[in-house]
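request received
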Amino acid sequence: MPSRPTDNDPARPWTEKVLPTQLEAIRDAEGDVMARLEEFAYNEDHQFAIRLAFEEALVNAMKHGNHMDPARKVRLAYRVSPQCIEIRIRDEGEGFDPGVVPDPTVDENLHRPCGRGIMLMRSYMDTVEYACCGKEVQMTKYRRPSQGGAKP
Amino acid sequence: MKIQVREESGCHVVAICGSADVESSAVLREALLGAIESGARCVICDLGRTDFICSDALGVLITAYLKALTRGGFVRLADPQQHLKEVLATTRLDHLFDIYADVQAAVGGAEGKGKGA
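response:
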């Protein structure tokens, strides 16, 4: 799954995991990623942003991609460097077109309890791209001093 | 996440301590919707010790807000810290919820809607 070049060290290995479609599996995966961010001393703003986008992406993969089907898996790959974190998450669903997801921030959608995950991912990460007909999301967050939260 | 509930000047205050993540959403839903269904008209979510919130938990807050409205009550948010303020602003939910600087102000019901505390 990982193949696209970035400014990350190309020799730095990816950590790859196959997760069951269980929301409980998110916590362990999240803990591993957060521990890596701590190692590289990412600040609190970065950690909050990455945790939020990571959780939203995994929940989307399990709920909307795999429809919570325990027979389906979620493939996770990530690598962290002092410069950035790259994350790839792929589900085994039918895919979707992220372009048709309604904007949850317009007045008529503010009352909707769902549909904010992708918007939050785009707001808190520097790049969010979909591949494989929407079955894979690829996200990057660059580490910049004194920055880390949502984009203005 | 832990939920601590108390009554304050006739308001039902639900303090959300820790991370309001997807795993915790069911507990949060039970605490908020359960209170409203039991007759609480004034519900205040104390976010002073909430260090994380995901879209699922935001959905629970919205569901509770709507349910309270249909019963003639309300849900107010109090004391969101910086990261939560940012999430509420990013999602524009600070235009939906009345947000107060602290629980006392929320109980008092001072003007606060859309001001993000």
